[in-house]
Amino acid sequence: MLIGNNCFNRYSWLNRTDETLICAFMQGAVYAWCNVHGSEPFAARNLVGGNNFYWQGTPLYPLYEHYHNLYPNDDSGYAVTQAGRALGHILKRVIVEDKRTFTTEIRNQVRHYQWQPNEEDDQVMHVPNWMRGER
Question: Which terminus of the chain faces fewer neighbouring Cβ atoms within 10 Å, N or C?
């Protein structure tokens, strides 16, 4: 659950299987972040950027492939930038549909999330729409 702006983009070109795998991967990354960092704010780049920038062999790779195929001769990194933006929107969906509570804010043109620990959230049985195969 996201307190604040909870609208997110959908990508019709992304097939359902890839979308589900990406969402599951990102939800695992969010859970790992919260486990290690608690309620410290994070952005998508904290989860899959920096030392984790190499997406090949992960469910995230179809995002890069899509944009690389659209811009095959672009050496400026535009495909990487667009894949990162798409992943940011998918991360937002994962957080909106998570049973836990998060807040969000934009800092330096980057959306950050912060987990708001709440014991009641852990007691809720919840299956996100992406896991049910719903778009």
Answer: C
Per-residue pLDDT at 3 exceeds 90: no
Distance CA 83, CA 124 (A): 33
Structure tokens of 101?
């509570």
Least Cα distance to 23 among 59, 61, 62, 63 occurs for 59
Quick check: 9 and 89 in contact, CB under 8 A? yes
Cα first-last separation, the chain: 17
Cα 93 to the center of its chain, rounded Å: 7
Beta strands (DSSP E) in 10-121 are: 102-107, 110-115
pLDDT at residue 132, rounded to an integer: 60
pLDDT over 70 percentage in the chain: 85
Give CA–CA dist 93/76, Å, rounded: 28
